[in-house]
Design goal:
elongated; twelve-stranded mixed beta sheet; binds L-homoserine; alpha/beta; 14 helices; 420 residues
Length: 420
C-alpha cells in the first residue's frame, strides 16, 4: 500500500478521501497516514477522525510514515510552497492540484524532485478530470506537437455561456454565478485569465518547452466582453470562448489566453457551461479533442487518484517530460502574428465618424471583412463591430492607437482574435 498524507480537506481533499474509503481501485492501493487542514473541527462529507491529525502541515509533509504528500491547499506561496519543498527535500513524492504553485515555481520544484529522487505529479492542476497530462506525456510522447489549445477555466466558460444564452451583462451573470457557488467570492484569478494561464503554462511545458513559462504569455480576461459582442459574434457564425493556446511559431513557442471568436464548427465552440476542453494538434496523430469537467470533487479527485495509482505502480518520469522535452524552445512574442480579428468600438453620433474609422484602418493596411453599425445608445456611443481579413496584429493595434489618439473612438476598443 502507498502511504499517503493529505493536506487540505476542502472539496477535492474530501473527494480523494471518499475514493480511498470506497470500494474502488484507490482503496486497494493507498492508505492514509495523516491529514491536515486550516480548521480541525468542522463538518465534512467524510469522516477523518481515524487519521493522525497534524496542526503543522510542514511536519506532515516530512513525516517519516509517508511516501506521498498530496497538496490540496492551493496558493503559489506560503504553506503550499513550504510543504511541497519540505516533502521533496525529504525524498518523497508529491501530488498536487496547485497550478499557481507550479506556474510560478515549477522549474525549481522539478529540480528539487530530481535532486532528491522524488516524483512531482499534477494531473489535477490542468482541466480537472481531463487526463491531459497523461495524454501529452504518455500517449503523445513520440509526436511533434504543433498546438495545444483549450477552454481551461470553467467559471469563465459558464459566464460566457450564460451571457450568450440570455443577453445579460457580465456583472449580472458573475453576481449570479457567485450566489450559486459557481464563481469564487474573489473571482479575479478566474476572470482575469490568470487561472487559465497557470494551466496553459503547464501544458506548454509538456508540449514544447520542458518548463512552465507563465511570465511571457499574453493574458487577457473576459471582463470587457459585452452582450453586443456575443450577439454580433453569433450573427457572424462565431462563439466567444476564453481560449488558452500554446503554439509552435518557427523555433519558438507562443502562449496566450484571450477571449477568441471561434467558428461555430470548431471543436471547442460548443463546449458550454462549466465544462473544460483541450484540443491538441500533433504529428503524426492529427487532431485530438478532450472534453470533461474541469473542477469539483469527483473530477479533480479522479485526477489526483490517477497520479496516486501511477505512483503505487512505481511509475517514474521527469516532471515536465513530454513531447517537448527533447529540446527547450524559446518564448515567442504573442500578439504579433497574422490573423483575422474582431474589433468593437464606439464613436460619437456625428457625420464622418465611420469614414474616420475606415480611413485609420486603411492607413495601416487593415482590410475589413464585415462591418456592422448598431443604432446609437446615446450621442457619444454608437457601437461598431467589424471583422478584418488576415493582418499582422501590430498593424491593427497601430490603427487602434490612431483612433484613440485622434479621439475618433469615445472609449477603449475591444480587440479579439478569430480562429477558424
Ligand atoms: N476556478 C477554476 C475554474 C477551477 O473555474 O475552472 C480550478 O482551477
Amino acid at each position: 500500500m502507498l502511504k499517503v498524507a493529505i493536506a487540505g480537506l476542502g472539496t477535492v481533499g474530501c473527494g480523494v478521501i471518499a475514493m480511498v474509503q470506497g470500494n474502488g481501485p484507490l482503496s486497494r492501493a493507498v492508505t492514509i497516514t495523516g491529514v491536515t487542514a486550516r480548521t480541525k473541527d468542522r463538518a465534512r462529507p467524510v469522516d477523518v477522525s481515524a487519521y493522525r491529525w497534524f496542526d503543522d502541515p510542514v511536519a506532515l509533509a516530512a513525516d517519516a510514515e509517508t511516501d506521498v504528500f498530496v497538496e490540496l491547499m492551493g496558493g503559489s506561496e506560503g504553506t503550499a510552497k513550504d510543504t511541497v519543498e519540505a516533502a521533496l527535500k525529504a525524498g518523497k513524492c508529491v501530488v498536487t492540484a496547485n497550478k499557481a504553485l507550479l506556474a510560478d515555481h515549477g522549474e525549481a520544484l522539478a529540480a528539487l524532485a530530481a535532486a532528491h529522487g522524488g516524483e512531482l505529479r499534477y494531473e489535477a492542476a490542468i482541466a480537472g478530470g481531463i487526463p491531459v497530462v497523461k495524454a501529452l506525456r504518455e500517449g503523445l510522447a513520440a509526436n511533434q506537437i504543433d498546438a495545444v489549445c483549450g477552454v481551461l477555466n470553467g467559471t469563465c466558460n459558464y459566464i460566457l455561456t450564460e451571457m450568450s444564452n440570455t443577453g445579460r451583462a457580465f456583472s449580472d451573470v458573475l453576481a449570479e454565478a457567485q450566489s450559486l457557488g459557481y464563481a469564487e467570492a474573489d473571482p479575479t484569478l478566474d476572470v482575469s485569465g490568470a487561472d487559465a494561464g497557470h494551466k496553459l503554462s503547464l501544458l506548454g511545458a509538456l508540449a514544447f518547452s520542458g518548463k512552465p513559462d507563465f511570465g511571457s504569455m499574453l493574458l487577457e480576461g473576459i471582463t470587457g466582453i459585452e452582450p453586443i459582442d456575443l450577439e454580433t459574434a453569433a450573427f457572424l457564425g462565431f462563439r466567444i470562448k476564453l481560449l488558452a493556446k500554446a503554439m509552435r511559431d518557427g523555433d519558438a513557442v507562443v502562449q496566450s489566453v484571450r477571449p477568441t471568436l471561434l467558428k461555430a464548427d470548431h471543436p471547442i465552440a460548443r463546449i458550454d457551461g462549466p465544462l473544460n476542453a483541450v484540443v491538441i494538434d500533433a504529428e503524426p496523430v492529427g487532431r485530438i479533442s478532450l472534453v470533461g469537467r474541469g473542477a469539483g470533487a469527483g473530477p479533480t479527485a479522479s485526477a489526483v487518484a490517477g497520479d496516486l495509482m501511477d505512483l503505487s505502480h512505481g511509475d517514474q518520469r521527469p516532471v515536465f517530460a513530454g513531447p517537448g522535452s527533447g529540446g527547450v524552445m524559446s518564448a515567442g512574442v504573442a500578439g504579433t502574428q497574422v490573423g483575422r480579428f474582431y474589433l468593437r468600438l464606439r464613436v460619437a453620433d456625428q457625420p464622418g465618424r465611420i469614414a474616420a474609422v475606415t480611413e485609420a484602418l486603411a492607413k495601416h493596411g487593415v482590410s475589413i471583412e464585415s462591418f456592422l453599425q448598431k443604432p446609437p445608445e446615446d450621442a457619444t456611443r454608437v457601437p461598431i463591430a467589424l471583422t478584418t481579413q488576415p493582418v499582422a496584429e501590430p498593424s491593427l493595434r497601430a490603427a487602434i492607437a490612431d483612433l484613440q489618439s485622434g479621439s475618433i473612438v469615445t472609449e477603449p476598443p475591444l480587440l479579439m482574435p478569430i480562429e477558424l
